[in-house]
Amino acid sequence: MGTALVYHEDMTATRLLWDDPECEIERPERLTAALDRLRKCGLEQRCLRLSAREASEEELGLVHSPEYVSLVRETQVLGKEELQALSGQFDAIYFHPSTFHCARLAVGAALQLLDAVLTGEVQNGLALVRPPGHHSQRAAASGFCVFNNVAIAAAHAKQKHGLHRILIVDWDVHHGQGTQYLFEDDPSVLYFSWHRYEHGRFWPFLRESDADAVGRGQGLGFTVNLPWNQVGMGNADYVAAFLHLLLPLAFEFDPELVLVSAGFDSAIGDPEGQMQATPECFAHLTQLLQVLAGGRVCAVLEGGYHLESLAESVCMTVQTLLGDPAPPLSGPMCPGVHPECLCRSGPTLEEPPAASDYDSELSLDVTPVQTSPSTHSSEGRPPPLLPGGPVCKTAASALSSLFDQPCLHPAPPVCPAVALTAPDITLVLPPDVTQQEGSALNEETEAWAKPHESLAQDEALTALGKLLYLLDGMLDGQVSSGIVATPPSAAAATLDVAIQRGLSHGAQRLLCVALGQLDRPPDLVHDGRILWLNIRGKEAAALSMFQVSTPLPVLTGGFLSCILGLVLPLAYGFQPELVLVALGPAHGLQGPHAALLTSMLRGPAGGRVLALLEEDSTPQLAGILARVLHGEAPPSLGPYSVASPEDTQALRYLRGQLEPQWKMLQVTSEADCRVSSSLRGLKLAKVGTFTPQK
Ligand code: Q9C
Ligand code: ZN
C-alpha cells in the first residue's frame, strides 16, 4: 500500500544565531544529511513524496495554549538580541525568525502523514521534520522543541478521525516529558518512552521520567517509562525491551495507530545518547511495531545529532516501512553486556577478540548437551559490523568505518518466491510475489528423497524438488523467503531434507520452528547448529538449550507470551542464518496466529524464512503467509484474552530452564522489573474498533 515521506525544504531554515554549546547540535544539516542518504540509497524514490503544509493555529490549539502560540508567532519579527533573551526563558531552546514557520511545517508534516495513513492512501510513513516536538508542552518550548508534533497528531487522530486507541512509542534517547504531560490522564493514548536517565542525573533531570510514573486518573497505567540508568545500551537491550515490555502491553492495548517519536540520538555515535545500538536496530524496532495496528505506523523525527548515524538509522527505518526485511543485527545479543564492561575486562580495541573471549561473554556455548565442536562459535555468527570486534568501539575511527560505505543495506529488495504444488494459490498472492517455476534436477531430488520412505510418491517428490530449488535460491541470496506445500505424510521428511540441505550448504545456525506433530530428526539431536522449537508438545520441556518443546497455548494472551517471551528471544539470541517454520500435522494454529509468528520470525534471520505447509492447507493460509513474508502487516489476532494459568506456568518453567544459557530471555535491568511491577494493576480499556476510511 505504500510508504509516505513527508518533508519541506523550508524546515532547514531555522538555526542557532548565537553561541550556545547546548543548542548547536540541532542544526539544518540533520535534515539534509538524512534526505541525501535516502536519495543515495534509492529509498526516497520508492516512497510517496508529500510536501509538508503549515499546521493551522486551530491545529496547534489541540495541545497548546493560545497565549503560547501567540508568543511563538511573535518571534517572527524579533531581532537577534530579543530572540536570544526570549530563548533564555526556556530550557535548551533557541528561536530564529523562521521558527514559527518551520515549527508549523513540522506539525503540518506529521498531520499530513497521519491523514495519508488514516485515509488508506498509504500504509505507513516518515515525516522528516525540524524543530522536533516531544519536549514541547502546553505552554512551553523545551529541548529544541517548539510545538509537539506527535502529540498534535495524536489529538488530531482522536478528534478528526475518531480513533480510540493510539500508541506513542518514543524511542528518542531523551524522555518526552512534553508528550507525557499532555496525555498522562488520557487512557486513549498509551505513551511509551525509554530514555537515558542515570538516576535523574541526565537532562531533563525530572523525577517523573522514572519508571514509577505510570499516568494518573483515567490514564493510570497508560504511561510507561523505561529509564536507562547506564549509557552504552545496545541492540540486545532495545530488542529485549520491546519483546519483554512494550509489545506485551501494546498487544493488550490493541492500538488503531502507532505514532513513533523517532529520535535517533539513541543510536551509536550520538553525542547526547552515548548508546551503542547500530542503525539496523531501528529496522528491527520498526518491524516489531509493524505487527500492531494493521501496520499503520507514522514515524516523526525527533532528535539525532550524529549526522551519519542519524542518516543511516533513518534509512533503516524507511527501508523497513517499505516492507524490506531488517538486516541481521550485529554483535552479541546479550542485554546488559555493555561496552564499558566488555572493554574493561575484554580484549583491547586494536585486536579482534579471540573466539573464546567472545564466547565467554555470550555464554551460549554453555550447553547441557554435546554440540559439534566446530559449531556455534563466533566464527559462524554474522560478521561483526565493527571490524575490531563486537561493540567495544566508541572512537571516531570505529564510527567512520561503520558509516563509510555508501549503503550498508542491500537495495533492491529480494521478493519472496512461492513454490507451491497447489495451483489455486496464485489467486490470493500479492502481485509482485513470484510463483516459483523452477525445481531441482530429478537426480538430485531423488538422491535427497532416498532415505525417506514417505518421499517415494510423485507428489512428495515434486514438492521436494521445488523445496530444494527454493532453498538454494534463499541460501544464495536470490530470494529472501518462500513457502512450500507438501503432502501431509511427507511433512516430517521434507523438513528433515530442508535442514540437511541447509547444513550441507554451510549454514551454521538454523532455527526450526515446528508446529504440530513433527519431531526433531534423531540424527540431529545433538547438533548445535540447529535450534529446534516445537510448539505443540504435550508438556513444556527443554531437552537441551537447542531443543525446546512447549504446548500450544489456547488463548491469544498465552500465544503472545509464548512468541514474545520465549520464541523471539531465543531466535534473536541464536541469530540464525535461516528460519524454517513448519506447520505440520495437527498444528492447530489459526491463520492470524500463523501469520503473526511467521511475520515476526523474519526479524532474527534477515528475512530468510521458509514456511512449510501441508498441501491441504487453504489457499487463504498460503496467501496470508506469502503476504507477511512480503512485508505486509499480519491481520489482527482478535479479542485479547489473558493467558491461562497453565500456559503461564509452562512458559515460566521454560524460561527458568533456559535463562542461564539464553541471555535474551533475561529481563535483567532493574528498571524493567520496576516498570513491570508498577504496571501490574494496569487496566486497559477498549472502546470500539477502527476501520480506515477509503
Ligand atoms: N548534554 C531532543 O533530542 N540538552 N532534544 C541536554 C546534555 C538538551 C534534546 C544537554 C537536549 C535536548 C529532541
Ligand atoms: Zn532526544
Structure description:
This protein has 694 residues and is an alpha/beta fold. The chain is 35% helix and 12% strand. The protein contains 21 helices and 17 strands. The strands form two sheets. The protein has a nine-stranded mixed beta sheet, sandwiched between helices. An eight-stranded parallel beta sheet has the order 2-1-3-8-7-4-5-6, with helices on both faces. β16, α18 (591-601) and β17 (609-614) form a beta-alpha-beta unit. α5 crosses α6, α14 crosses α15 and α15 packs parallel to α16. It is elongated. The protein starts with a strand and ends in a 16-residue tail after the last helix. Residues 340-395, 669-674 and 676-694 have low confidence and may be disordered. Bound molecules: N-{4-[(3-aminopropyl)amino]butyl}acetamide (Q9C) and zinc ion. N-{4-[(3-aminopropyl)amino]butyl}acetamide binds next to loops.
